[in-house]
Design a protein that fits this description.
36% helix; elongated; alpha+beta; 5 strands
């Protein structure tokens, strides 16, 4: 199991997305699924980007996150609606 930390800016972006969404249940479900997937095995989901960064799409959201394998930590640092 990995520990998942969301940067405050990503948490605020998620709150803004949820507050402005007409599909709040879908946004909540996607956020929960992203969090659960990253806790289980972040290297098995999404796609690799440069360095330790990966991207994960779970409609209607997408996130960028970094994986620290030795520490078993994930840092979510960006989130947005997808598709936009």
């Amino acid at each position: 199991m990995y520990t998942v930390d969301w940067l405050p800016s990503a948490e605020q972006d998620l709150a803004d997305i949820w507050n402005n969404a007409s599909d709040r249940a879908a946004v909540s479900t996607a956020a929960d699924m992203i969090d659960a997937s990253l806790k289980q095995n972040p290297l098995a989901v999404g796609e690799a980007r440069s360095g330790v960064t990966r991207i994960l799409f779970y409609s209607p959201l997408a996130v960028l996150f970094d994986v620290d394998i030795p520490a078993q930590k994930v840092k979510v640092w960006d989130i947005w609606r997808w598709p936009a």
